[in-house]
Amino acid sequence: MGNADEREAVRAASVAGAVAMKRETVPVSILYSTTGAYADVGRQAVAGAFAAISEINADAGFSFRIEPKIDDPAGRAERYALLSEAAIRQHGCRHVIGTITSWSRKDVLPAIERHGALLWYAFPYEGYEASDSAIYLGACPNQHLLPLFDHVLPRYGRRPFIVGSNYIWGWEISRIAREMTEAVGGQVVSERFVPLGSVEVDHLIAEIAQKKPDFILSNLVGESATAFLAAYDVLRGGDPSAPPIVACNLCEIELGGLTPSASAGHISASPYFNRLDTAENRDFKARMALRHGSDHRLTTPFVAAYMSVSILAQAMQDAATDAPDAIRRVVTSRLFDTPLGPIAINPRTHHAALRPHLAISNADGEFEIFHSAASPVEADPYLVHSLGQPLAADGPATDTMLKVIK
């Protein structure tokens, strides 16, 4: 058989195997579109969810194993509710990790609420929502758009051109941006929307060339965002002084496949970037490098889905159940370790307090962080009492109040 150490290793493995066989299996729905108009984002999210599930299932410290129920709605609105309903009723899933766009989240929530399940939503969104049946781990406007505009309005000018995908995310972020611009005496020079997934953007570029805005706010999603970045690069012709494209949902994925010139010079607001230099992210990247290779670039969607599964698992371990009511109580009563740092979730709004970062993209398709909030910002999904930073590039601080009413 071998020496005593080998025999002990075999015995320990046998015991671990027996324990693993006794661990309860918990079904969890993973609902991201891995085909369709924003497939690259969905595939990254699924990869992040699987990375977390693999860690949890390999950790004997958890008293359960997660069994993922994977569905691909293919970016089609009518499939989200049907697939979430099937996951809950036919497969016993009490938790749905997923949806990317706001219309897909809103399509899923009625089924989630009807069956007493819980949705884990981790992407930036437009706010004006708070459901007892959802945990919001993505940033809302006071955690992305407000700090972004507090930076760009005094530095680039008060005449933005706004473009977005033609659904609730594009509409609402555009509306809030317009109110912020007008509140400081500025004017939106144009506001345009294109169908979700459309890559026909030449008319937008032509209008930008004609109206010469101070900067461009892009609320485009997926393939539309990438096509727009490529077309705008042709217009600016490598001129570093050209008006920048700024966004609240632009990450490393949209820069993939672009030329170095088209990738560089765009400003984004997010609670996570691959180059976030914190102890938590360094540790996370080291673990992911062991699994995926040292050259694997982490993205915001990957981390968002990973974080959703990880927090759910930690809460299930604490609660000794996957019952949504018990999970809600745990999730809103303690801090959770994440790649973003410790995360707290508000018991009233179910939104996470997040630390906003501003970053500019480079020719390598990475984002270099140039400003970070001093501490996590409590979510204010209805913008009832958000304080904006001073809208001045220099000079003394003078707080301004912005109240947006829908």
UniProtKB/TrEMBL annotation:
<dbReference type="InterPro" id="IPR028082">
    <property type="entry name" value="Peripla_BP_I"/>
</dbReference>
<dbReference type="InterPro" id="IPR000709">
    <property type="entry name" value="Leu_Ile_Val-bd"/>
</dbReference>
<dbReference type="InterPro" id="IPR039570">
    <property type="entry name" value="AmiC_PBP1"/>
</dbReference>
<dbReference type="Pfam" id="PF13433">
    <property type="entry name" value="Peripla_BP_5"/>
</dbReference>
<protein>
    <submittedName>
        <fullName>Transporter substrate-binding domain-containing protein</fullName>
    </submittedName>
</protein>
